[in-house]
Please model this.
Amino acid sequence: MVAVVVSQPSPDDPLAALEVLDTAPEPVEAPPPDWVPVTVRAASLNHHDVWSLRGVGLPAERMPMVLGTDAAGVGPDGEEVVVHGVVSDPAWTGDETEDPRRSLLSERWPGTFTTTVHVPRRNLVPKPAGLSFEEAACLPTSWLTAYRMLFTKAGAAPGQTVLVQGAGGGVATALVSLGAAAGLRMWVTSRDEGKRRRALELGADAAFPSGERLPERVDAVMETVGEATWSHSLRALRPGGAVVVSGATSGAMPPADLQRVFFLQLRVLGSTMGTREELGRLLRLCASSGVRPLVDSVLPMADAADGFARMVSGEVVGKVVLVP
Ligand SMILES: NC(=O)c1ccc[n+]([C@@H]2O[C@H](COP(=O)([O-])OP(=O)(O)OC[C@H]3O[C@@H](n4cnc5c(N)ncnc54)[C@H](OP(=O)(O)O)[C@@H]3O)[C@@H](O)[C@H]2O)c1
Model:
């Protein structure tokens, strides 16, 4: 057995907080007895796991905590499943992401970077046979977030132009792949020439250095970078356009530029994860269209530190997958 854990967060040096243990620690709060075990066959790394190592959203009284928000594996009846990582209150019936009491796996309940994870039965979604466990494990966090940003929040329609900030990230590469598959004209920015090239290979129509003036205004911007790109995102939008924001890796307090927001009637839309229903649709889209996640690397869980180091240094292009 192996478990990737945080027990002492380190705000400035997240890698120093990473622990790889031979056994999962006793959880502070044990999962309810009616939850079902899933044998993890693959899990993927998300920037959320880096925030957890920094102590963001994970108070001291919840530690030690097994990291990991998404996984694909084998359910209690031997079925192949994808785990939806958003755990809502059992009494909640609407959009799970809007439940004020929701949590993500690894925030309140132990996460997926171990051999077995316990989840509510309703969080199991059948894995399409055409997707490998490694591919399926990339979908429930960054790909689901990208799906909701593009289709539910922005309502992007074929033929529209969408700008993605920070081309190499897990969410960003998902946005490019999904948008291209749906007939959107996808533009990206990146600080790195190699990542711009990879984005073009993935299906982006154009790639620009971060902050560069665009040849024309776009219908929507997908923003996960935050302070470093926010002003550019607002400048890139056509009047009435939408910026959908689901992350702020470089900082969360950029100048709001309210004059531009009201004068051009821009829409600023927050987005977080996605519903189980959206995850089901995303899986069907991947199965029928042939779209697959860009996998940066597949590592044994015991070597999780190598994957975290790649993410913290910004080297990752696509998804880092961990296998127990
Ligand atoms: N709300 C939600 O439900 C949700 C879900 C998933 C992710 N998120 C958030 O979204 C963000 C991205 O997540 P991820 O898993 O895709 O992370 P990731 O894979 O680590 O994303 C890395 C990308 O961020 C860009 N970036 C980082 N720092 C930057 C800076 N200072 N200037 C410009 N670009 C910078 C880089 O773009 P280039 O190097 O290409 O320029 C890089 O490719 C994280 O903050 C995460 O917490 C939120």
